[in-house]
Design goal:
The chain is of the alpha+beta class. It has a single domain, classed as STM4215-like (2-Layer Sandwich). It has 3 helices and 8 strands, in the order ααβββββαβββ. The radius of gyration is 15 Å and the shape is elongated. It starts with a helix and ends with a strand.
């Protein structure tokens, strides 16, 4: 799954793990999380390619990286490190291949339960397995 490749890429980035250590979670944060932290989720899959012989096994997906911090600056630092780890990159590993990642949107958010957050959206073009 490309989610695993994305997570492994984030964990391998020293600038990001200097901030979040191993606190990179699928879909949502655990109860009573320690900040800073990051959660990633696939928002949608679209753009499945076709050719004359049928499905090309190439697709695009939108992922959201929810970057949390104890204050706005810390959340933005996590988002910046995550963006630098993935934006413009070609990735492969574990039998998965991502042709490119593009950061397309970034939003500052506040939630009374979760606190400060930057939501970073990425478009990822990849080979479907």
């Amino acid at each position: 799954m490309i989610e695993t490749l994305i997570r492994n890429t984030l964990i391998a980035d020293l600038s990001l793990t200097a901030l979040v250590v191993q606190r990179i979670y699928p879909i949502s944060l655990p109860q009573n999380p320690i900040y800073p932290a990051l959660a990633y989720t696939r928002i949608s899959t679209f753009g499945r390619e076709l050719h004359h012989a049928g499905a090309a096994k190439v697709a695009e997906a939108r992922f959201q990286l929810s970057c949390f911090g104890n204050d706005p600056s810390q959340a933005k630092s996590v988002a910046t490190a995550a963006r630098r780890a993935l934006h413009g990159k070609t990735l492969s590993g574990g039998g998965e291949k991502i042709f490119w990642c593009q950061a397309v949107n970034e939003i500052d958010l506040w939630d009374t339960d979760l606190g400060y957050q930057v939501a970073l959206d990425l478009i990822v073009a990849y080979v479907e397995s």
